[in-house]
Each structure stands twice: as C-alpha cells, then as structure tokens.
Amino acid sequence: MQLIRSILAAPLLRSRIASIAQLRRTFSSSTSVSARAFKYVVSRRVKQKPAKKTNFWVKQHLKTGRRIKYPPYPYGDSNIFKRSNRGLFGGKFPMQGHSVSSELEKKNLRRWLPNANKTTLYSSVLKKRIRLHVVASVMKTIKKEGGLDNYLTKDKPARIKELGPRGWRLRYAVLLRLKEQEAKRLRGR
C-alpha cells in the first residue's frame, strides 16, 4: 500500500496520470447543445388507430339512450385468481402441488393453471361472435347445453356462481335481448 502511495507521490507520474485522464474525458460542460450534431434523430409519425368498436354488451343503449347498468354480481370479483373475472372459467382456480423427480424422488413445488383458451363463441340471441377466454370443461358444458345462450341463461345457483363477472354481464345482455324480442312478439299480435 505504501509502495502505491510513494509512486503516486512522484510529480512526473502524477502529471502523466492527469493527462491520460484528460484524454479519456471528452465531455465538457462548456459545449453548447447547438454544437452537437443530431443528424440521426428522425421525427416519426405514430400511426393513429381508429376508435375501437365496442361490443354489444358494453355499449348497448336502451330506449332511454343510457348505457346498460348491470346488476351487481352476487358473488363479487375473484381476488385470488383475477384472470377468471375476464372469461368463463367455471370456478376453476390454480392448483398447487409437488412435481416429484423419478430418480431422486425430490419434491419441487409447482402450480397447475386452468386449461383456458381464447375462443370465439357465437350468440344467436345477440347475433354476435364473442371472443372469450374459456376453460375446456366449460366449452364441453356449452356444447352439451346446446350453445352459449342456453349456458348463460340457466337459472341454477351453481351455474350463476361459475359464470363470474364477465359471464354475468353476458347473461344480462342476453336476457335483455330476449325480453325485447318477447315484447316485440307480443306487440305484433
């Protein structure tokens, strides 16, 4: 340590180190911004996206011209698995367990997520294709029930509980449209 101090104390060496530091340091606060060349900076235009078309159940106007006010979902939003609020997850949640190695039989903690896929389902009542995240077991139930509208309008408490907030809104939109169709049919008689 003292050897380094003695070397740095030598006046010739100190001046040489200072000149090397000056060579490396090219930045100076005295240069003005206008002196710098900004020839590679190009102003570019950002493509304007057209306004997104909102779906029926989001912006369906009633005869009064107001937006639909959905009744509150009786079971509330899921705070455990928030992704299930945006699709038809049928009450499925992530599960935890161990993956066990075959040779050493070591246990590692892991998670199993629900088998959710993004699919487009057609609603014959709304006359729209609806893009949703749907779990495979719910897809099977929809096919068994005979379509999305039949799945959504079933009145059993277990079905309403597994719908989730997004399914609840879809259900309300379908029921509104069915009510309008029924009123038209009665007026036509």
Automatic annotation (TrEMBL):
The keyword Ribonucleoprotein applies. Keywords: Ribonucleoprotein, Ribosomal protein. The keyword DNA-binding does not apply. Pfam families: Ribosomal_L28. InterPro entries: Ribosomal_bL28 (IPR026569), Ribosomal_bL28/bL31-like_sf (IPR034704), Ribosomal_bL28_sf (IPR037147). GO terms for cellular component: mitochondrial large ribosomal subunit. Gene3D superfamilies: Ribosomal protein L28/L24. One of its GO terms (molecular function) is structural constituent of ribosome. Belongs to the bacterial ribosomal protein bL28 family. This is Uncharacterized protein. It comes from Lipomyces tetrasporus. The lineage of its organism: Eukaryota, Fungi, Dikarya, Ascomycota, Saccharomycotina.
